[in-house]
Write a structure and sequence with these properties.
- This protein is an alpha+beta fold.
- It has 4 domains: about 190 residues, no CATH class; about 200 residues, no CATH class; about 200 residues, no CATH class; about 200 residues, no CATH class.
- The protein has 25 helices and 23 strands.
- The strands form 3 sheets. Strands 1, 2, 3, 4, 5, 6, 7, 8, 9, 10 and 11 form an 11-stranded mixed beta sheet that branches. Strands 13-14-21-16-18-17 form a 6-stranded mixed β-barrel.
- Strand 19 and strand 20 form a beta hairpin.
- Helix 9 packs across helix 20.
- The longest helix has about 60 residues.
- It is elongated, with a radius of gyration of 36 Å.
- The protein starts with a helix and ends with a helix.
């Protein structure tokens, strides 16, 4: 009967009852440790999961929106000059039908340009400066802006497609014209025949209309300095049909949705090029290029947010693992008693693990809830206005992986530690007290007793109920590493924005002509006489087909004196070489040293045809954001640099103006001499541009306004500058989390020294000395954190920054914020003492008898 009773006591039912009893009996004493694990996993882990989920949501918001807006994969414009001027460039229904018949085209819409003016009280047309020069007016054919490339309404409601008395405009256009939703106007439309004749006395069509909506276009979410703000006003299909009949709609952009998506863009481009009449030039705008630009522009936010989340996740796992280990060590004495009473190993394991497992599960659930609670803060940046599903969102992938890491990963660690503890108990092992040479040296130096005791507390584990000094020191190192890595990463971002050469603007100034005017040879002669100028190079904009893919190009002289910064390889040294942007290099699946085939136009259009030529890829570069607005243009990782010597004589002749004042480069980039102050150098360049303008004013065929072009920032940099306080908030959140984690670790370490503090008080330590002991313990932990964490954080921050810079095709130049790191070192010492102040004072004020009774 006794044997049966023992078997029952150790059977499944008895084990469950014993474990349940032990859980209830010890919960109050162990609850603090369990809550620490739960809150660490739930709050800091939830912040980590929320950051990672927010990064994913930020990066995917634009592609998701494009799918919902039924965005075109290819936009196409042509400038046909066959002696008919405007007539050749009116909207062509026959061309639309021809495009629809192409085998890979699923749908064709168009946005022809309209010539509109306000009608003043006198009945005569009035052209506001912004409406004449800055705000584009476009119509809608085939459902453009409605069923295709749908706009997002930010204010008001979308104009009804069947009405002629409503229109919409972008926010930038409304600001320029000082218009508001609900405002009504009388407008007049002019035909292209009137435009060609220069007659604006009487509009061909008058109509009354009202501004019904402020909208955002799918390609105007994030724009670089070349495109600037999209200022387009959109009029309804009904009004466009009316104006088409009167010849008041021309120079259309044809928007194509392809049956096979972006993969069929090269095929359709070749078919369109082959169908163009002789003498026509063309321009494509590929949706995937714009999408890539937006996604790269969002990377400063999504990558930073994701990196911060991953750092917080690692911190959560490491610190929670320490908390789990501390909890198991704290319960070791209970396990020793149970083992002495003959408890089965299964009971020992269950007693050690049940509370921790419950804490991990509850913490994982809380982390998921925190991540959902944070989800309305994403997506960040400009794409937030286009989020197809604003509000709360549960990212099952992130939460699932996080739960697996927290529950399975930390649970497995707890199991291994518990098994090791039970195995040691069965063998009767105890933790040796040990003594540190560090403490012995402190004694020889004659440090005060409180200092020596604090040093011992910081580096020695103690006897059987060992203190987790390793966890304390590791927590301090991790906290400092996180803060320093965050500061180093942020320093790299700040350096990128403040140094234009890192994003392709590898010169001091540039000269351009407004309205497409070429920078003539006269400007070169003026620059040659300017003592502030060291070197300059002229570039021409264009695009070409590289291995069948249309890419924007900068046409350059061989071995240019001023060139974009090279990332790998070298610049142009011969006519049969090409330098590619890093993104284009990846898109073509090429590497430096390989070859590609480049061409332009079609054989039936000899005047504007560059036959296929094989070029060697000699380098990759960070390209500047320059080119013609709202067309393909080079920018950071997108585009290529090719030699002007590639152009055949017939092509050169077709692009050369007989008037030398009307011929030249699209942009001349200038490097100043060393030692010239930027302000003085820029003044010299402006003087050169003004002189060019003045001298060409008398040439009616070449007149134009020439200006010194300021730094043209790519979309990535424009968006980063618009991020505002987001990086600081993320960095502060991580720093706060690191400090809280360090505080919890120090509090736990101080509490574990209660018995030692009681002994010190017994031998005569006063309250001030006991507080000094705790201060020394915290200071040593902080000092170790600074000594190890600062260099580790610098390394981590530099590695993360370099990876980030390569991802956006910037020049990877990490920097170290030395003044901030000095402040971190000092703040770590101060914060460690502040954090340990409360538990230190409490321990110092607690009665000795109470301390021993607690033990």
């Amino acid at each position: 009967m006794a044997a049966e009773g023992r078997r029952d006591a150790t059977g499944t039912g008895g084990l469950v009852r014993a474990v349940a009893y032990r859980f209830r009996a010890t919960l109050g004493r162990r609850l603090g440790g369990y809550l620490a694990v739960t809150l660490l996993v739930g709050l800091v882990g939830g912040l980590a999961l929320g950051a990672v989920a927010g990064a994913r949501r930020t990066q995917s918001a634009y592609p998701t929106y494009l799918a919902r807006a039924r965005a075109s994969q290819l936009d196409f414009t042509a400038d046909v000059d066959a002696g008919a001027s405007y007539r050749a460039n009116l909207y062509s229904p026959s061309l639309t039908r021809a495009l629809r018949r192409l085998p890979h085209v699923a749908r064709v819409a168009a946005a022809p340009t309209l010539i509109l003016a306000l009608i003043g009280p006198s009945g005569r047309p009035v052209f506001p400066a912004a409406l004449e020069n800055e705000v584009e007016t476009a119509g809608s054919v085939g459902g453009e802006f409605y069923r295709q490339d749908a706009v997002v309404v930010r204010q008001g409601r979308l104009p009804a497609p069947g009405r002629t008395d409503e229109f919409a405009i972008s926010a930038a256009g409304a600001r320029l014209l000082h218009w508001h939703v609900g405002q009504a106007f009388t407008m007049g439309a002019f035909t292209y025949a009137q435009l060609d004749a220069g007659r604006y006395d009487a509009p061909a069509v008058r109509f009354r209309t009202r501004l019904s909506a402020i909208v955002t276009y799918d390609d105007a979410v994030i724009q670089d300095a070349v495109d600037q703000d999209d200022t387009e006003a959109v009029f309804t299909p009904a009004l466009t049909d009316r104006l088409l009949r009167d010849g008041a709609a021309g120079f259309p952009t044809y928007d194509l949705r392809l049956a096979g998506g972006a993969a069929e863009v090269p095929v359709v481009e070749r078919e369109i090029i082959a169908a163009l009449p002789p003498g026509a030039t063309y321009s494509f705008r590929v949706s995937s290029v714009t999408e890539g630009e937006v996604e790269r522009a969002m990377k400063p936010e999504s990558i930073a947010l994701g990196v911060f989340g991953l750092i917080a996740l690692v911190a959560t796992v490491v610190i929670a693992a320490q908390a789990v280990a501390r909890s198991l060590r704290r319960n070791r004495r209970d396990l020793e008693v149970l083992r002495a009473l003959g408890a089965h190993p299964a009971l020992l394991l269950a007693d050690a693990l049940l509370g921790i497992a419950a804490a991990l599960v509850v913490g994982a659930v809380l982390a998921g809830a925190v991540s959902v609670a944070l989800s309305p803060l994403a997506p960040l940046g400009a794409v937030r206005a286009l989020d197809p599903s604003p509000g709360f969102e549960l990212d099952w992938a992130v939460v699932g992986v996080g739960a697996a890491v927290f529950v399975a990963g930390l649970g497995a660690l707890a199991l291994v530690l518990a098994l090791a503890t039970v195995w040691r108990l069965r063998r009767g092992e105890r933790v040796p007290a040990g003594s540190s040479a560090f403490v012995a040296n402190a004694l020889r130096l004659g440090l005060p007793p409180s200092s020596v005791a604090g040093l011992r507390f910081a580096v020695e584990r103690g006897g059987g109920d060992a203190v987790p000094v390793g966890s304390t020191l590791l927590g301090a190192v991790l906290a400092v590493t996180v803060v320093v890595a965050t500061l180093t990463f942020g320093s790299g971002l700040g350096t990128l924005v403040s140094h234009p050469a890192l994003y392709g603007w590898n010169w001091d100034a540039a000269v351009v002509g407004q309205g497409g005017a070429k920078v003539p040879a006269l400007t070169d002669r003026l620059l040659a006489r300017d003592g502030d100028v060291a070197a300059w190079t002229g570039y021409t904009y264009g695009d070409a087909e590289a291995d069948g893919i249309t890419v924007p190009v900068l046409v350059s002289p061989v071995d240019p004196r001023v060139a974009p910064p090279i990332l790998s390889g070298h610049g142009l040294e011969g006519p049969h070489q090409v330098v590619l942007g890093a993104t284009t290099l990846a898109e073509l699946h090429k590497q430096v040293g390989q070859y590609l085939t480049l061409s332009y136009g079609a054989p039936n259009n000899v005047a504007t045809y560059i036959p296929p030529v094989r070029l060697r890829i000699v380098g990759s570069a960070t390209l500047p954001a320059v080119g013609n607005a709202f067309t393909l243009h080079v920018s950071m990782g997108t585009g290529a640099v090719i030699a002007a010597a590639l152009e055949p004589p017939a092509f050169v002749a077709s692009q050369t103006n007989p008037d030398p004042n009307a011929d030249g480069s699209d942009i001349v980039v200038i490097r100043l001499r060393p030692g010239v102050a930027p302000a003085a150098g820029l003044a010299s360049v402006r003087a050169v541009a003004a002189t060019t303008t003045r001298r060409l004013a008398s040439d009616p065929d070449a007149g134009g306004i020439f200006t010194a072009l300021p730094v043209q920032q790519p979309a990535e940099i424009v968006n980063y500058k618009a991020m505002g306080s987001t990086p600081a908030v993320l960095a502060s959140s991580l720093a706060l989390g690191a400090v809280v984690a360090l505080g919890l670790t120090l509090v736990a370490a101080v509490r574990r020294r209660r018995r030692d503090l009681a002994l010190l008080r017994t031998i005569g330590f006063v309250q001030r000395q006991l507080a000094a002991v705790v201060a020394w313990q915290a200071s040593v932990a902080a000092a170790v954190g600074v000594v190890v964490g600062v260099p580790a954080g610098i390394v981590v921050g530099r590695v993360l920054w370099s990876a980030f810079a390569r991802a956006i095709a910037a020049v990877p130049r990490p920097t170290v914020p030395v003044p901030e790191l000095v402040l971190v070192a000092g703040a770590a010492l101060v914060l460690a003492n502040v954090v340990a102040l409360v538990p230190g004072r409490l321990a110092a004020r607690t009665a000795t008898a109470e301390l021993f009774r607690a033990e």
